[in-house]
Amino acid sequence: MVRSIQIDEAGQVRAWLEACSRPEVEAAIDGIHREIARVIHEVGPHCLASGNCCRFEAHGHRLYATGLEVARCVTICREEGRHITPEDIESAVLEGNCPWQDGRLCTAREGRPTGCRVYFCDPRLQDLVPELAENAHREVRAIHERFHVPYAYGEWRTMLREIMEQNPFVTAPPATSGRLAVPGSSRPRGLVDLRILVGK
């Protein structure tokens, strides 16, 4: 069961959302993501693109993220025209998955948090996942501290729910929506095969 957590009023959530627009914060987060991608590329885990990593209840795992990571994902997906609503979150809770999962596909590739980026199902490398997750979380927490961004850490859908309750505007589509090109890349943001998540 996903329980509510107490976020420190709208000011804390607003600080997360504002931090997402700071180039130095985005650059720091991108650095963590690049390092994760490098390590995963080196170990070369197998991914069957089953989508099981996003089916939390069915496979006995949970996704956790910091407030900054959650706000970043919400912001990026909203800019892409992939905003979600409180109803989407409640549906995901009932179904036991992520609100951005579409069949076996991830629709939040650019915005997904470090927990998504380090996880893979290859049993041969299962010992590496906790190590990667711990290191990534430590680095993300350091970003909160370095840039004076309020810190909170919680279950993914619970954090999404709290952000939307404190800032309902994030559920509304932006003035211009659609697939946007990732800066520095010719590949559009959008539906992606989960094999891409592990650099395959």
Indicate the topology.
Elements: H1 9-19, H2 23-43, E1 64-66, H3 67-79, H4 86-95, E2 101-102, E3 105-106, H5 114-118, H6 128-146, E4 153-155, H7 156-166, E5 192-193
Antiparallel strand pairs: 1-4, 2-3, 3-5
Structural write-up:
This protein is mainly alpha-helical and 200 residues long. The protein contains seven helices and five strands; from the N terminus they run ααβααββααβαβ. A three-stranded antiparallel β-sheet has the order 2-3-5, with no helix packed on it. Strand 2 (101-102) and strand 3 form a beta hairpin. The radius of gyration is 16 Å and the shape is globular.
Structural features:
single chain; 200 residues; mainly alpha; 3-stranded antiparallel beta sheet; globular; disordered C terminus
Would you summarize the structure shown here?
With 200 residues, the chain is mainly alpha-helical. It has one domain.
List how many beta strands DSSP finds. 5
Main beta-sheet strand count, sense and barrel state = 3 strands, antiparallel
In spatial order, strands of the major sheet run 2-3-5
**Binned strand content:** 5-15%
End-to-end distance, in Å?
33 Å
Rounded mean pLDDT score: 78
Number of helices: 7
Taking all Cα atoms into account, the compactness measure Rg is: 16 Å
The topology string of helices and strands comes to: HHEHHEEHHEHE
Shape: globular
Structural class by sheet pairing and helices: mainly alpha
**How many individual domains?**
1
| Unreliable runs | 1-6, 176-200
Instruction: Specify the helix fraction band.
Output: 40-55%
